[in-house]
Amino acid sequence: MLAPICARGTFETLLRALPLIMSIFRANTIPGKIVAYRDIGKAVDEPRAEGTHDSGARKTLSTTRIHKKNTTTTASTPNRTLDDLEKPILTESASSSFVWDGWPDDVLKKDFSFDEVERLDDLQVHWATKTNGTRLGDIFALTWEGGKKSVRKCLGIIECDNPDCRIIIRPRTHPKPLQAQLQQSCKCGAVLYHERCSVHETLWKWAEGIHWTNSGAHKHPRPTHMLHLSGEEKNRFQDLVQAHPTVGPLGLIVGVPGINGPGKSVTEISDIFWNADRVSKERSKIKQGADVGGDGFIAAFKKLEEDHPEFVVSSTFGIVTVVSLQTPFMRSLLVRDTTLEEPVNGTVNDATHGWWSERNALLIVTSVYDVKTQSWSPSLFSYSNGARTLHFKYHFVALFQGIAEEADSRGIDIEDRLFAGV
């Protein structure tokens, strides 16, 4: 449930999301849901052989397609498969020359450190893709083979049967929206069809980084509409916004005001910035980040403790930073009046990367079984800026303190048995 609140955010995000978190805790449960994603399945509009027609009004499509949109298509690239990964293109000597540009093509494989992953914005690509994950694997695995595996499948493109049209459309990721796209006509009036692609990337996230492979070459043009910015493009945009904080989205597109007229434009950084809404969104991220940093963060944290004095149960800042959060209801779950017959009397402790933008930061969670809701509920959250022994020490000290305080409030003797299940 915390995923939509603080995924890809920072600790400041947690402060801004406090009202939603508190409403969840007051409900005495945090509901959980596992979402399973289906593949697109059968083609919506399969190409037909030359000279054949369907029963509807749709035009005849030839099995031979002319890629008129983009001359950089890799249709001439030699066919390779995952079997060829035993003889990878990226050898030890060639790896240093590999440059990630968001358009991985052909059979490739490479190991990325977490510093590289962060610099390359989580290895985002410009191809239209859909990601499917798995519950197997461990992000703390000591080898990439045991890491958390995810597969990113290319969705191909949508184009029309007009050889003079240069429009390429990104396919939607789910079947119904994709069907709706194909039922529409191209802006030029021609019939749209979905050109599929079998290329997929596989990523294994493990303790030292990400092991990445690409299965083959794309036989279709590149989508002309891109969604992602590279790390360098983000930095250039941020520098321009910070240098001209009063210039709005339209001014950034036209060009920042100067003595001799409009100056540098954000459209020189990326074509993405021709979209005024996207410029506004990215500009807001930078300005909001500036507002909550430094003194602003200290003031916000002070107000958090003043408004909710029992919520922050422990905090330490420095080389080791740990902030532990707990409500009275969460604390009440830590002490039972009776022992349950099922093997659910102890606590479950977990720590995970990926909730915060800082890759070294952890979300540490201790959960206990709640008889009323018949589910595992969190009894303590901790933000931790690392995974050293001292980080976990602060979390468990806060946990033991909560157990002792709850037992004392109920008039229960504080004995070792209360802490045995941790």
From TrEMBL:
Basic and acidic residues composition-biased segments: 46-57
GO biological process, one term: regulation of DNA-templated transcription
GO molecular function: DNA binding
Composition-biased stretches (Low complexity): 71-80
Chain positions covered by the region annotation Disordered: 46-86
Domain of life: Eukaryota
Annotated protein name in UniProt: Uncharacterized protein
Organism placement in taxonomy: Eukaryota, Fungi, Dikarya, Basidiomycota, Agaricomycotina
